[in-house]
Task: structure prediction
Amino acid sequence: MFIAEKGLEIPTQEVDLRSGEQLGEAFLKVNPNATVPVLETDDGTRFTSTAACRAYLESEYPEPALLGRNSIERGHIAGLVWKIESDGFMAVAEALRNRAKGMKDRALPGPHNYAQIPELAERGQLRVQRFMPVLDEMIGDKPFVAGDVITAADLDAFIFVEFAGWVKASVPDDAANLKRWHAQMSERASAKL
Result:
């Protein structure tokens, strides 16, 4: 979504996570952490986290500014992204990775196997449900999470809501701000990729 919102055309190569391609020798040479995304620059530099990929792309292609237009905005957006990732993404990951049959012994990302813990799946599910009203309040009556323009916080929040569906969590009926915002985000071209 970040690449699409920037209007960039970057060659991509899919990694089949379901089959464990990220754990194969070829991919581990690219990223020993066995995680995606990986962004490789023309000079061979590799960035192996979403934050690193975004920072590089924002620096190289500053418009539209998805990480903030000035130091105050950058700090504010970084805080929002951190909150969404720590309280939203991590909750979904905890629920999904500790419950899904296809993730048996893959409760944590990376090159090593970790057993699922059913109690963590339950806790993750509860955390997802508790984060929905927090996200609703974060959005408030603004068009976007951080204010009047789309930012990385919107992309992360949108992906959180979509992934929450994977653990059978939905936006609560009384989360009017979140419902309005999600409907608006769902119409963006970047959400349809």
Remarks:
- The radius of gyration is 17 Å.
- The longest strand covers residues 39-40.
- The chain has seven helices and two strands.
